[in-house]
Automatic annotation (TrEMBL):
<dbReference type="GO" id="GO:0032993">
    <property type="term" value="C:protein-DNA complex"/>
</dbReference>
<dbReference type="GO" id="GO:0003700">
    <property type="term" value="F:DNA-binding transcription factor activity"/>
</dbReference>
<comment type="similarity">
    <text>Belongs to the LysR transcriptional regulatory family.</text>
</comment>
<keyword id="KW-0804">Transcription</keyword>
<feature type="domain" description="HTH lysR-type">
    <location>
        <begin position="1"/>
        <end position="58"/>
    </location>
</feature>
<keyword id="KW-0805">Transcription regulation</keyword>
<dbReference type="InterPro" id="IPR005119">
    <property type="entry name" value="LysR_subst-bd"/>
</dbReference>
<dbReference type="Pfam" id="PF00126">
    <property type="entry name" value="HTH_1"/>
</dbReference>
<dbReference type="Pfam" id="PF03466">
    <property type="entry name" value="LysR_substrate"/>
</dbReference>
<dbReference type="InterPro" id="IPR036390">
    <property type="entry name" value="WH_DNA-bd_sf"/>
</dbReference>
<keyword id="KW-0238">DNA-binding</keyword>
<protein>
    <submittedName>
        <fullName>LysR family transcriptional regulator</fullName>
    </submittedName>
</protein>
<keyword id="KW-0010">Activator</keyword>
<dbReference type="InterPro" id="IPR000847">
    <property type="entry name" value="LysR_HTH_N"/>
</dbReference>
<dbReference type="GO" id="GO:0003677">
    <property type="term" value="F:DNA binding"/>
</dbReference>
<dbReference type="InterPro" id="IPR036388">
    <property type="entry name" value="WH-like_DNA-bd_sf"/>
</dbReference>
Length: 313
């Protein structure tokens, strides 16, 4: 049994396809298949059910794969010990970030981070929360930037800051005359929300104490969006209101800022965290990322205490 064989084993489990796994391991499919067959012969068990599409691990295969992931993670820590002796951070850092954070948070820190750590290659993917967690579990990402708490024991959450929700209201809407808003004043029939699957949508419904579903529509317009920027434009040009995260209004022109109304205290907040696998690697890189993000935040957000955090689910 070799580490290479275990890497191939984990790759097939991750991608559930021999050809795709071989491509990601930079070997030919026959080479990968041969090594896995040797491993199965050595162990005396069948690791994958090859009759199914996509290929799936057998019951004993699941247990062996779980142990293989632990062994590979521990072996990588040896390289991290060596890397830790070097002054300069280097290597690849794969980050998953949710769409309601990416356009507002990434620009705040990415330039300064890369200037300080020129030998680090950053790979960023915009993904939904469920996708980020799944990729973390399969080691396809190193760290996620998302909203917590998630209450998933397989991951570790490192809270960064607490961001307030604000309302964005069409000037002709009755609530536009109020400087601050109470959650109970929000009318779901007038509220534009994101598509299913976005944690921001779930939090908006929780703020309104509506756990059920809703559609973003009024009269003869039914618009289902995955973008906060689109919802803002609908409010500006059509009617109604939407909720926005605080970071999204930092660079907003003064004319549009007039459409922003805060919530009355205690303001509903969302907890933004770095999320990693329980046995995560690249600790120094992730610590550097954590420090850079916090340093880049506006003072009010950086120093805000955890108070009324809105549940994600």
């Amino acid at each position: 049994m070799t580490l290479v064989q275990l890497e191939y084993l984990v790759a097939v489990d991750t991608h559930r396809h021999f050809a795709t796994a071989a491509e990601h391991c930079f070997v030919t499919q026959p080479t990968l298949s041969m090594q896995l067959q040797k491993l199965e012969e050595e162990l005396g068990v069948q690791l994958f059910d090859r009759s199914r599409v996509p290929v799936r691990p057998t019951e004993i295969g699941k247990e062996i794969i779980a142990q293989a992931r632990i062994i590979l993670a521990e072996s990588k820590k040896i390289r991290e010990i060596v890397q830790g002796q070097k002054q300069e951070l280097s290597g690849e850092l794969r980050i998953g970030v949710i769409p309601t954070l990416a356009p507002y948070l990434i620009p705040l820190f990415i330039t300064s981070f890369l200037q300080k750590h020129p030998s680090v290659q950053i790979v960023i993917q915009e993904l939904l929360t469920t996708e980020i967690v799944e990729k973390l579990k399969h080691e396809l990402l190193d760290v996620g930037l998302l909203v917590t708490p998630l209450e998933d024991k397989s991951i570790k959450e490192l809270p960064l800051f607490y961001e307030a929700f604000v309302t964005y209201i069409n000037p002709k809407h009755p609530l536009a005359k109020h400087e601050s808003i109470k959650p109970e004043q929000l009318d779901m029939d007038e509220l534009w929300v994101l598509n299913e699957g976005h944690c921001f949508r779930s939090q908006v419904l929780n703020i309104c104490n509506r756990g059920g579903s809703t559609t973003s529509q009024s009269n003869n317009l039914d618009y289902r969006s995955g973008s906060l920027e689109t919802l803002k434009r609908i409010v500006e040009t059509q009617h109604g209101l939407t909720l926005l995260p605080e970071l999204s209004i930092l660079d907003m022109p003064e004319q549009k800022r007039q459409l922003v109304h805060t919530f009355q205290e205690p303001q509903p907040l969302r907890e933004v965290s770095l999320v990693v696998h329980r046995s995560f690697l690249k600790k120094k890189l992730i610590e550097a990322l954590q420090q850079e993000i916090i340093a880049a935040l506006p003072h009010e957000i950086r120093n805000r205490k955890k108070e009324q955090v809105v549940p994600v689910g």
